[in-house]
Amino acid sequence: xxxxxxxxxxxxxxxxxxxxxxxxxxxxxxxxxxxxxxxxxxxxxxxxxxxxxxxxxxxxxxxxxxxxxxxxxxxxxxxxxxxxxxxxxxxxxxxxxxxxxxxxxxxxxxxxxxxxxxxxxxxxxxxxxxxxxxxxxxxxxxxxxxxxxxxxxxxxxxxxxxxxxxxxxxxxxxxxxxxxxxxxxxxxxxxxxxxxxxxxxxxxxxxxxxxxxxxxxxxxxxxxxxxxxxxxxxxxxxxxxxxxxxxxxxxxxxxxxxxxxxxxxxxxxxxxxxxxxxxxxxxxxxxxxxxxxxxxxxxxxxxxxxxxxxxxxxxxxxxxxxxxxxxxxxxxxxxx
Length: 336
Known about the structure:
Blueprint: H1 2-14, H2 20-31, H3 36-44, H4 49-88, H5 104-117, E1 122-123, E2 129-131, H6 132-135, E3 155-156, E4 159-164, H7 169-177, E5 183-192, E6 204-214, H8 219-234, E7 240-247, E8 250-259, E9 276-285, H9 287-292, E10 301-308, H10 309-317, H11 330-333
């Protein structure tokens, strides 16, 4: 074994590395877990006790020499690469700049904001960490409503009254609490729901909600606002329909569908061969919500709507997996 160690020390002293491939060969032979050192230390276990002190000392010398030589070879290879780079660099060449692109969600969000701003809506933002009152109670959610249960909402365990907002409606409540009608605003932002992640659902996503409160606001105003929005975003030929639905914070409530802009209503996989695709929900603000914010529902009325930005983006660009928006895959992002 002493002869083996001596042979390896001699090999290390003579070792050279002109490039990264030769450096890697040295590492694999002497430094890696399957290299010479590991093999020798396994053999060392069988050495008689009276020889362990002497051979163990030589093994440690070998190990130290291998590590020092490896660092020396790294410096040589890097220095060589640096020297070559210095001589090969042509400073007259133009710089190679790889430009990024606007994220598809940002593109669609900015376009949505632009459309509503032209209709007189301002943009409001609010906290992503919210209390129960602003996220549920003020929005007319009964205490036993399923949305309050843990499978839907991320509650902060140290304080069950604090949670990650499940919609941007909390901004509507804060807006009405601290101001006086009329209100005409949209609320884009990120929301969180405790859902299984799949191609069609995620635990966080982006919403944009809208609120208009004033005297004599009617369902007709809501319809005209959304008609204009759909035609601006999806095209002049887009049709829109409202289906009766239920939301605790609006009465009456309606789901918003638009005619499929891919097949023009003929039926395709995007619209599941119905000719229509759902983009969000809407309705007239429930009087209880107005009262909880200190607004007299006998004097004022209003409408609200909400839609998922990811869903609209997926429809607009025919993207079939919501997870692509948050994976930072440049091959996907460069398409936009």
